UniProtKB/TrEMBL annotation:
Pyridoxal 5'-phosphate (PLP)-binding protein, which is involved in PLP homeostasis. Keywords: Pyridoxal phosphate. It comes from uncultured Thiotrichaceae bacterium. This is Pyridoxal phosphate homeostasis protein. The keyword Iron does not apply.
Length: 230
């Protein structure tokens, strides 16, 4: 077995712990989600052998196919990609988490397709915090109304927010975008929602995200290498 993925996981783990210390976050308050989209099963098996449990997938059918393999049955699957109505059944059946809900229609389908013997699907609402036309997600003022509409869907458990801000190498600009997500999260909690998850930060901006309260960072390239074309 190659040791590259194990080495990369250790490096990312150190970056997370160092950022927690630097920004006065509690130790182990930030969870690592290894983004395994387009990666072969062998890479996931190697990551699991090194202690990684949570994996993020962008393509519902690919996630479903991987989740059915015996060698990775113990993995925790997070669906993090844009959601199409005709793909929700795979997500409802095989995911533990979904980070990209941004429409009531999708939320209702996930609720209806989650079987009664499964625990509730853990949900983050995706926020288009930089208001980019090329990205999915709710505008900030659309989040509260959708949360209220979803509150009766008992097969879903709303945990928090996910965001992918506009790409920039400027650390302070990264922090400002993530701060807007955190402020929205805090406002929602002040209005009675018991949110505990901020899914934000990737390979090139995870420190800024941790500085602004991220509880889960989504790392792919720095663990598995460049994305494969599909």
């Amino acid at each position: 077995m190659s040791e590259i993925i194990c080495d990369n996981l250790q490096i990312i783990g150190r970056r997370i712990r160092e950022a927690e210390q630097r920004y006065q976050r509690s130790e182990n308050s930030v969870k690592l989600l290894a983004v395994s989209k387009t990666k072969p099963l062998e890479d996931i098996e190697e990551a699991m052998a090194c202690g990684q449990v949570a994996f993020g997938e962008n393509y519902a059918q690919e996630m479903a196919e991987k989740a059915q393999q015996e060698s990775v049955k113990a993995a925790e699957w997070h669906y993090i990609g844009p959601m199409q109505s005709n793909k929700t059944k795979w997500v409802a059946e095989y995911a533990t988490w979904v980070h990209s809900v941004d429409r009531l229609k999708i939320a209702k389908r996930l609720h209806e397709q989650r079987t009664v013997d499964q625990s509730p699907l853990q949900v983050c609402l995706q926020v288009n915090i930089s208001k980019e036309s090329s990205k999915s997600g709710l505008l900030p003022d659309q989040v509260l109304p959708l949360m209220e509409e979803m509150s009766t869907l008992e097969h879903l458990c709303i945990r928090g927010l996910m965001a992918i801000p506009a790409v920039t190498k400027d650390f302070q600009a990264q922090r400002m975008a993530f701060a807007q997500v955190r402020e929205l999260y805090e406002s929602l909690n002040a209005q009675g929602f018991a949110l505990d998850t901020l899914s934000m930060g990737m390979t090139n901006d995870m420190e800024a995200a941790i500085a602004e309260g991220a509880t889960m960072v989504r790392i792919g390239t720095a663990i598995f290498g460049a994305r494969l074309a599909i």
